[in-house]
Design a protein that fits this description.
The complex is a heterotrimer of chains A (about 150), B (about 375) and C (about 325). With about 150 residues, chain A is α+β, with helices and mostly antiparallel strands. Chain A has 4 helices and 5 strands, in the order αβαββαβαβ. Chain C has about 325 residues and is mainly alpha-helical. Chain C has one domain. Classes of the chains: A alpha+beta (about 150), B alpha+beta (about 375), C mainly alpha (about 325). The interface of A and B includes residues 8 and 15 of A.
Chain lengths: ~150, ~375, ~325
């Protein structure tokens, strides 16, 4: 009885010391910490930020043909697209492409459903504001030239 | 020295009068309940007389939502139920629809699916490991587990594009192919994880305090397991070698060699050991996948708008928490007629009232932690 | 009549103790966060001041500027009194602690007894805090603190007794001076030293024995309802108590300010911070012990061993 009493105490103490050995070892090991904002972690290639429109390489206008397949694919109903045919053009162009980012779940179904690959993910992750307003109706046409917004820059 | 390691159990049967003595409202905002679970405890000092879980704080009508979406649109919602094992849910849903429509999945896609699901399982178990130790009052193992999990999430992010709520599988395939870099990094992760796992055991498993906190605490008898519909590590910790991946094999699991870890004790320690052994098994599975991954397509030809033929189907998968079954009825349109989820956490929680009875408050929290509950999954 | 010199000395001592308490709290909190961070692959505070040293000052300012919330059903006088009762005794307990042969606020013949007695008042403060704020978690935390008190106080006293036998004095200064002649008492009393280490962890409510505040069980235990300055008083009390307990440990077992080359106060501080580091190391490694297991640990292991240790020491002393 005394024997097991002493043995239990010694093995118990031993197990505590093994644990302490682990923590002291870690104390002198470097972790994965990336000190933002001085350093920035590398975003992976497939990073999914909010969606944005892809410009056509030759014209600079948005590739979007305002077909609405992204609107239909979206499970959260967060995309609104309106389009019209500019004079002389064969295809429609968007007059409005609004994203309600407060509803978006970043699933990427819109990007996949797009028949002309006109949508892609942005690499913008630091979206901060004091209210949800700037994100509840993000006008994606702001960043891309459109035949309706007057001239390509 | 502690001949009776069994936790002191309160022997009195609670009477009406006793129940109203001291009511402790544990949750929905309490550091020990991991989310919005609320448990009403009737207590006598530190001993628990009865424990009633109150659910529904995170209820989002997931089943009703699914009835208003196209089959493809339901997919992103899968990640929101059990956010720690989103890929298992992904898999259940895509397999279900493939079953209804009869799509063939290319072998490479199947391999990628299992590879990512097993990585996801490890990350879920690592988080559980940390959270469980947090319940027992140790903060450091939590961050040690997160250090490894960080690598894992980076890895999954490179192919799925998100870190937690993945929407990666597609009907008849997967969303993206894996490249050689990813496979190499996975191999590096395996080596790192294998090197770190003994540290976990040194820090926690052998620890005398941990042993006293978990051994013979919250014992589930094998008799109870089927009556309460338990599954997953909670069931396997009680000596039942039931694993959906073996009993109703799906995907490429029949081709992989793996053991189903089982512990006979049925206590918190048993469930803990089962989960740590499962991390090991998942690592072995990933090893086999990396060695055998075939070349080829990752996406079968499927129509753009999915309309499963009229009928019903169900699909069960093994999530890190246990058996998930999804049952769906199609009326031949592009919108599901009815979807029903059978989630493991809900069943596993049901035995908590019985286990907590007569235990100390500290033990009740250890038990709650050892069940590995994800509250949004319970509330749906 | 109080002579002028006594008056100046008293005022200087009060100032000195306040500075020690304040600077210690600022440094130890930073130190603890750094130790915790590095033990968990983190960095700890880095932003405020060099290596984050001023983080505690910033936190303190934040706590001071926050509103103190009184729960509606709280017993207000007790609620306010509790943190003060926690803090004042540990302040006073620094009076007889010598930081060197001359650096001492006031030499007392029974300094050790005073420190032990004041240490008991801490539990009273916790009990009042738990009782006064009318919160069930706090009440449970307070009742745990009271339930454990005997289980560690008796072993603690039983490890101090051999030291008193060896040194023949209750004066902390005398105890160190005796060690100057022989050697550190830790070498005579290794078992007592170990038990004392465990007992001070218990005494200061530190993990793995932090049942009174047991975060994952009782939210924040006895100080659940405290906010702002009142909370920071508890915080200050805890860290000052750690300082006192470590100082006593250094004096009783490691020869206080004795040491080669460096001046006395430096040695004293080094030894104190050695104990503080040990306590942090415990906290950031172990899970929390269950309350009833701690009680049986105290009564079944600490008490018999410390009693045996005391009896053997007394026997050997009598034989020599």
């Amino acid at each position: 009885m005394i024997k097991s009493y002493v043995r239990d105490i010694i093995t118990g103490l031993g197990s505590l010391l093994t644990g302490m050995k682990v923590t002291i070892k870690v104390m002198f090991t470097k972790g994965n910490t990336v000190e933002w904002p001085r350093q920035t972690a590398q975003l992976p290639e497939k990073f999914r930020g909010h969606i944005m429109l892809v410009p056509n390489e030759s014209t600079g206008f948005a590739k979007c043909i305002a077909c609405g397949s992204c609107v239909r694919a979206c499970p959260s109903n967060c995309i609104t697209v309106k389009g019209a045919k500019p004079e002389g053009a064969k295809k429609k162009s968007p007059t409005l492409f609004a994203l309600d980012f407060t509803k978006c779940s970043l699933c990427g179904l819109c990007v996949e459903s797009c028949p002309v690959d006109a949508i892609t993910f942005s690499r913008d992750y630091a979206l901060v504001d004091y209210s949800s307003k700037p994100f509840s109706a993000m006008n994606l046409l702001d960043d891309v030239a459109s035949p309706f917004s007057g001239g390509s820059e | 020295m502690f001949e009776s390691q069994i936790a002191p159990t309160y022997h009195l049967e609670p009477s009406e009068e006793q129940e109203s003595d001291f009511i402790l409202n544990l949750g929905p905002q309490h550091p020990g309940t991991h989310g919005v679970l609320r448990v009403i405890l009737h207590m006598d000092g530190e001993y628990i007389l009865t424990a009633d879980p109150v659910l529904g704080y995170g209820h989002r009508m997931q089943e009703k939502i699914a009835e208003n979406m196209t089959w493809a649109q339901v997919l992103p919602y899968m990640a929101r139920m059990d956010y720690l094992s989103a890929l298992s849910y992904n898999q259940a849903w895509v397999c279900l629809v493939e079953k209804m429509c009869g799509y063939e999945v290319p072998p490479r896609a199947e391999y990628i699916r299992v590879l990512t699901t097993e990585l996801n399982r490890i990350s879920s178990h690592l988080l559980w490991f940390g959270a469980f130790l947090l319940d027992l009052g140790a903060f450091t193992p939590f961050l040690h587990a997160f250090e490894d999990r960080e690598k894992l999430l980076d890895l999954l992010e490179t192919i799925t594009g998100s870190r937690l709520t993945y929407c990666f599988f597609r009907f008849g395939g997967v969303g993206a192919d894996v490249d050689a870099t990813f496979l190499r990094e996975t191999q590096e992760f395996l080596d790192q994880m294998r090197a770190h796992l003994p540290g976990y055991h040194e820090l926690v498993t052998g620890n005398v305090i941990f042993e006293h906190r978990t051994k013979n605490v919250g014992v589930i008898l094998p008799f109870d397991t089927s009556g309460y519909g338990l599954s997953g590590p909670v069931l396997r910790g009680s000596g039942e070698a039931y694993d959906v991946r073996v009993k109703e094999p799906y995907s490429i699991y029949p081709e992989l060699k793996f053991n189903v870890p089982v512990e006979q004790t049925g206590d918190c320690m048993g469930r803990y050991l089962v989960r740590l052994a499962e991390i090991d098994e998942s690592l072995n599975m990933i090893d086999q996948i990396l060695a055998n991954i075939p070349d080829g397509d990752i996406q079968a030809k499927v129509p753009k708008i999915i309309k499963p033929p009229e009928g019903e189907a169900s699909m069960a998968v093994e999530t890190p928490r246990g058996e998930l079954m999804i049952y769906a009825v199609s009326d031949g349109t592009k919108i599901p007629y009815r979807v029903k989820y059978r989630v493991p956490s809900f069943a596993n929680l049901s035995i908590f009232s019985k286990m907590a009875r007569g235990q100390l408050l500290a033990d009740a929290l250890a038990i709650l932690g050892s069940l590995d509950l994800v509250i949004p999954e319970i509330d749906r | 009549m109080i002579s002028e010199i006594t008056l100046i000395r008293t005022l200087l001592s009060i100032l000195g103790i306040t500075v020690v308490v304040g600077v210690n709290a600022i440094f130890v909190v930073w130190f603890e966060r750094k130790v915790a961070g590095h033990m968990q692959y983190r960095l700890g505070p880095t932003e405020v001041g060099p290596a984050g040293l001023l983080q505690t000052v910033a936190d303190g300012l934040k706590l001071v500027s926050k509103q103190i919330i009184f729960p509606q059903s709280a017993d207000k006088p007790i609620f306010i009194l509790a943190p003060i009762i926690c803090l004042v005794p540990v302040f006073i307990a620094l009076v007889p602690v010598p930081f060197s042969a001359t650096w001492q606020a006031h030499e007392l013949d029974v300094g050790l007894l005073l420190v032990i007695a004041l240490g008991l008042l801490n539990t009273l403060g916790i009990l009042l805090a738990g009782w006064g704020c009318d919160n069930k978690y706090a009440l449970l935390g307070a009742s745990r603190a009271v339930a454990q008190i005997l289980a560690y106080k008796i072993p603690l006293l039983l490890c101090i007794l051999p030291i008193i036998l060896l040194s023949g004095s209750f004066s902390l200064r005398e105890i160190v001076l005796v060690q100057e002649q022989s050697t550190w008492f830790a070498l005579y009393q290794p078992v007592g030293f170990l038990i004392y280490l465990i007992a001070i962890t218990l005494e200061t409510n530190r993990s793995p024995f932090d049942f009174a505040e047991a975060e994952s069980e009782l939210v924040a235990g006895f100080h659940t309802e405290y906010s702002g300055m009142m909370f920071s008083l508890f915080f200050l009390a805890e860290y000052t108590y750690m300082l006192v307990a470590s100082a006593i440990a250094a004096i009783l077992f490691l020869g206080g300010w004795l040491g080669p080359f460096l001046p006395g106060p430096v040695w004293m501080l080094l030894k104190i911070y050695f104990f503080l580091f040990l306590m942090m190391w415990f906290r950031w490694t172990f899970p929390r012990v269950r309350v009833d297991q701690m009680l049986s640990f105290g009564w079944k292991i600490l008490l018999p061993i410390s009693l045996l240790n005391f009896l053997i020491t007394a026997g050997v002393m009598a034989a020599l």
